[in-house]
Design brief:
By secondary structure, this protein is α/β, with parallel strands linked by helices. It has 8 helices and 7 strands. The two termini are 19 Å apart. Substrate binds at residues 23-30, 76, 111. Keywords: Gluconeogenesis, Glycolysis, Hydrolase, Isomerase.
Length: 218
């Protein structure tokens, strides 16, 4: 189970938020297999076209019109949210809590990329096995990585979900965010450990729907 108790969010007797989770469109760094984290990269032409097709053709966009569209404040998510809003309606609210997880010195690098002649093997192994063993489990590696810890990451994901549950009961909310953020949120909402693989990382522009329950104790 997640270290954070969110049973109140899943109480079937309470009002719910219809939550549509959307991963941003394909970026130049996605194509180059570079880790982005808090660094940014522009959407590709294909990424923009796919987002437009999604906004026009995806059945969720037709069945659930957004009352509000929350988005990460990183450029790739903001650009994606604008494309979706132009077709689906709603207004955009940027929120830093929707940022991707920060991965420190690995950001902007291709997997197993050499840096000044040194292969960051230990750091990449820790990243690749992060669903088996917490990324901050080894204090030495964590200190060198300068990455966001699991408790810090989970704290801001949970904080955002609680905000939605309080503010938007009975409403439809689109959330445009990032792969690790959506994976973590899905884990929390389904009672799984936040850092486990769970349903994995969604594809670029992938959409899924969750009923987010409000709680009297939140």
């Amino acid at each position: 189970m997640s270290s954070t108790n969110l049973h109140g969010l899943l109480n079937p007797n309470e009002a719910s938020v219809t939550l549509i989770l959307i991963r941003h469109g394909q970026t130049e760094w996605n194509l180059a297999n570079k880790l982005q984290g808090w660094r940014d990269s522009p959407l590709t032409t294909q990424g923009r076209k796919t987002l437009l097709r999604t906004a026009v053709n995806n059945r969720l966009c037709h069945l659930y019109k957004p009352d509000v569209v929350y988005t990460s404040d990183l450029g790739r998510a903001m650009a994606s949210a604008r494309i979706i809003c132009n077709k689906s309606g709603g207004y955009i609210v940027p929120d830093q809590r929707l940022r991707e997880r920060r991965f420190g010195i690995l950001e902007g690098k291709r997997k197993n990329e050499c840096d000044d002649g040194f292969l960051l093997i230990q750091h990449w192994l820790a990243y690749q096995k992060r669903y088996e063993k917490r990324l901050d489990a080894c204090h030495t590696i964590a200190a060198e990585l300068l990455a966001e810890s699991e408790p810090m990451f989970e704290h801001r994901v949970v904080g955002f979900l609680r905000t939605l549950a309080r503010r938007h009961a009975g409403k439809t909310v689109y959330v445009v965010s990032h792969g690790e953020w959506i994976r973590c949120a899905n884990n929390i909402l389904h009672g799984r450990t936040s850092w486990s693989c769970g349903e994995g990382i969604p594809m670029n522009t992938e959409m899924n729907i969750v009923e987010l329950k409000a709680s009297h104790v939140i």
